[in-house]
Design a protein that fits this description.
The complex is a heterodimer of chains A (284) and B (310). Chain A has 284 residues and is an all-alpha fold. Chain A contains 15 helices and no strands. Chain A has helices at 2-5, 10-35, 39-43, 55-63, 66-97, 103-113, 118-136, 144-167, 172-180, 185-196, 198-214, 217-222, 230-239, 249-269, 271-281. Chain B has a single domain (81-301), classed as Orthogonal Bundle (MetI-like fold), CATH 1.10.3720.10. The chains are: A mainly alpha (284), B mainly alpha (310). Chain B: Belongs to the binding-protein-dependent transport system permease family.
Chain lengths: 284, 310
């Protein structure tokens, strides 16, 4: 059977796999090596460290406020993730189980909104928050909650779309059966749909989390020194090195890996669900 | 095969078409809808209004009473800024990077279609460039591509003088390479989903016809992969044209002229040059530009039951 299904001759298959793994592995492997190398050696382009030291992983925490950045990222992205998943399941349920006028337009809009350039909304969002802040006398720009609200609205369309693709695969008979048993919409949703859609909820939450964790555009103008997310801390760290005597490249590599670690861990833990979510929506 | 495995698996729930849902159910849409409305639709309208105003740091505080200049910002953006250049850089780099990513992604899908020992590990590794946050990708390539960095040291051992990658004309190549590097796993994912949707009987038929792998690939497999790969190409284009973080972190601001992409130009125009009205006009123009691939995308993705999608 294998020989019938075979797509490539064995040598070509092996050659291609090695080639692709090198493309991925060379830069990523180098980052690991550089992160345990001295700043000086990394700046000189050394590949294999002469002396391996984990000192960079100790020093970064005092060189830049990485700890606070990670805490801010975790708080903001975590809030966005939980809220998005919770709201999305309701919207998605209605979109999948009910027919109403404009439904397909809403579905299209969910997808289309992900492609609106962030730069288009950045300035108006900034201005609106500033206006609200000055007219109501509450701090907005520079606070974590303004960042949360911003990410929420970018995250919701995609989370809802993920839940739509998930819920429409749920067998309709289960819901019909619950209805026959006399359950109302709310009961069906809480007792049947939500318990069955955990994998979908997890994917929706993860994508919303990644949105907050990965963003630089909004975070770079809507945070201040205290509320900076890890992404902005790293970006500022990188940009501030221009013209320095010995750029702390080894530390930057270590910091980059620390910032990537939670994302990679999430992905490894939920790989199967995430891949199905990616192929269903097709958008990061 | 449109978007995702198993899309034929479930017969669509036969519900009464046209029957409206109970009011209570539709209300469940309200929280999500309202939030989306406030932070997407309202700012969108504000952006349109701003693009018609002469808005800078002096008129910013009272932005609603800034002088109305009509299409003035648009005329200036097209005629007297580097916007046309930025459009060219963004568009061409996205197209070339996508063209590089397509064969890589399809090849990766072909190598992991059949089970072998360690396949799940290979699959995870393939996805790493895509999983890494763009700000991390930008940071690590920025260091790799330093004038004395490891990339140039490697090239030097091959007898090639690398030169400057983060400045000057070769930065354009750097942008393309890094975008393709982080973008190809998406093609891989969609191509793999497509491959797994191909029925075994087609493989058997090809084998019965005595087709060798080359003929089978060319006449059976690749034509069947066209829809998912086309979808991947559109998504990848949208992604790369809109990409702000990667070029922003990789090259910094002010960005070198050769890699001054549209999102970064728009950003710099408002948050460094403080020409807010002009920047809003640029942003609106960039939305218009991505509208074409976006509409193609929206037509391609399965919205609903299979038979309902044209």
């Amino acid at each position: 059977m294998n020989s019938v299904l075979r797509l490539l001759p064995r040598p070509l298959q092996i050659g291609l796999t090695v080639f692709l793994l090198t493309i991925v592995g060379a830069p990523v492997g180098y980052v690991f090596l550089a992160s345990v190398n001295t700043d000086l050696a990394v700046a000189a382009g050394e590949f294999w460290p002469e002396r391996v030291s984990v000192g960079n992983y100790v020093r970064i925490w005092s060189t830049v406020p990485l700890g606070r950045g990670l805490a801010n990222s975790l708080l903001v992205a975590g809030t966005v993730a939980v809220t998005c998943a919770a709201v999305a399941v309701f919207s998605a349920y209605v979109l999948v189980r009910h027919r109403f006028r404009g439904r397909r337009t809403v579905l299209r809009a969910l997808l289309g909104m992900q492609s609106i350039p962030g730069t288009l909304l950045l300035l108006p969002v900034f201005v609106l928050f500033a206006t609200i802040g000055s007219s109501l006398g509450v701090p907005t720009i520079g606070t974590r909650w303004s960042l949360v609200v911003t990410y929420l609205t970018f995250g919701l369309p995609f989370s809802t779309w993920i839940m739509v693709t998930y819920l429409r695969e749920l067998p309709g008979e289960l819901i019909e059966a619950a209805r026959v048993d006399g359950a109302g919409s709310w009961q069906i949703l809480l007792r049947v749909v939500i318990p069955l859609s955990w994998p979908g909820l997890v994917v929706a939450a993860i994508f919303a989390f990644l949105l907050g964790w990965n963003d630089v555009l909004f975070a770079s103008v809507m945070t201040d020194v205290d509320t900076r997310t890890a992404a902005v801390v790293l970006q500022v760290f990188g940009a501030a090195q221009e013209g320095g005597a010995i750029p702390p490249y080894g530390q930057m590599m270590a910091a980059a890996l620390v910032c990537a670690a939670p994302v990679v861990a999430l992905y490894l833990a939920f790989q199967r669900y995430i891949v199905s979510g990616l192929t269903a929506g097709g958008v990061k | 095969m449109r978007a995702g495995p198993g899309w034929l698996a479930r017969p669509p729930p036969r519900r009464r078409r046209g029957a409206t849902a109970g009011g209570a159910a539709v209300w469940l849409l309200a929280p999500g809808g309202l939030l989306t409305l406030t932070v997407i639709v309202v700012p969108f309208v504000v952006a349109l209004v701003m693009s018609l105003l002469d808005l800078d740091q002096y008129t910013f505080r009272q932005w609603l009473s800034a002088p109305f200049v009509g299409a003035g910002n648009y005329v200036e953006a097209v005629g007297r800024t580097s916007l046309p250049h930025a459009i060219w850089v963004s568009g061409s780099a996205a197209v070339i990077a996508t063209l590089l990513a397509l064969p890589l992604g399809v090849a990766a899908a072909l190598t992991t279609h059949l089970p072998f020992r360690g396949r799940s590990l290979v699959r995870s590794l393939y996805l790493i460039p895509y999983v890494l946050p763009a700000f991390v990708v930008g940071t690590i390539w920025r260091i790799i591509l330093q004038p004395d960095g490891v990339a140039n040291q490697g090239l030097a051992t091959l007898g090639i003088a690398g030169g400057l990658w983060l400045n000057g004309p070769k930065s354009y190549l750097a942008l393309i390479v890094v975008q393709a590097w982080s973008g190809w796993p998406l093609v891989y994912l969609l191509a793999l989903a497509g491959l797994q949707g191909i029925d075994d009987s087609l493989h058997e038929a090809a084998a019965l016809d005595g087709a060798q792998w080359r003929a089978k690939l060319r006449h059976v497999i690749l034509p069947l992969l066209r829809p998912p790969v086309a979808l991947a190409a559109i998504i990848s284009l949208l992604h790369m044209v809109n990409s702000f973080t990667l070029p922003f972190v990789l090259f910094g601001v002010p960005s070198p002229h050769d890699v001054e992409v549209l999102p970064v130009l728009t950003y710099v125009e408002s948050f460094q040059n403080l020409r807010f009205g002009l920047s809003a006009a640029m942003a609106v123009i960039s939305l218009v530009l991505i509208l074409v691939p976006l509409l193609v995308y929206l037509r391609t993705v399965r919205l609903d039951e299979p038979e309902a999608t044209a």
